[in-house]
Amino acid sequence: MELFDKNELLVVGNCPICGGASKEIDQVKTIHPQAEFTLSLKECNVCGHWWHGEMLNQDYLSRLYAESSPFVVGEDRTGSMDLKIDMTKPVNSILKVAPQSKFNYLEIGSGTGALLKEMESHTDQAWGVEPGSWGRGNNQVVADVRQLPSDVKFDVVVINDALEHVVNPKKIIKDLEKNLNDGAVLLCCFPNKDCFKTKMRKGKWGMVRPWGHLHYFSTGSSAKMFGDSWKVFKQKKARPGDQTMGELIKYFFTAKNYKSFRQFIYLLINIFFGKDQWRLVARYRTKI
Predict the structure, then answer these.
(1) 141 bridge partner residues
(2) Other Cβ atoms within 10 Å of 91 Cβ, number
(3) Is residue 169 part of a domain?
(4) What is the count of structural domains for the chain?
(5) Is a pLDDT exceeding 90 seen at residue 1?
């Protein structure tokens, strides 16, 4: 079994978003299929944020992603990353809030580059940040925000399903500011700790996947994550992929091997209680 370097372990007692005191609400195993190591799931007494009390240093965490370690990706899921996904909906949502018709685009957590590739025809420049091994092979993709070209300023930034993976989400957003033009727009999504499922399942909630996921955001912590230079002008609860009820039902009746009784119950749960992500749009303003 693969081991991790215990010298890289971080103990995070106070809330990493607002600094508030915390309480332990559950104990959960890491997503490594053979590891028995358990982590605490903590809740902030002030802003309601959830996080794991034992994390790993960010540089070491990035290295584990580069190696596709089971500690951060679980069982081998790289094959599922090659699925063909219709990019029309995400591309249109980006173009709808873009500050101008041609712009510089940055995607953090660009994965295999499907969305990044689609955005190239709509932008002056399109860059991605992806520490995982599946992001290699594109000269416009770097492994770390610090490797982005200093002479390129971005107008649109997308961070989908990435802020929950990093040790310090606030620092990621703050560090981005030097790479942005005034009025830049940020679109992001991340786990919604305030959804119905968390009240019922706590550490058994499907989004709780340490060390693949480190953070689970409340209404309070998602607001406090942004500094004074940002204005959040849209925030909503959503299903993964921003799926509508109609899209879920259509997928159920058209997908192969997806019509068992268990899957029908799963469909109903996701229709009524499946909004376990936040989708948020914010604007960067240097002049307040």
Answers:
(1) 128
(2) 15
(3) yes
(4) 1
(5) no
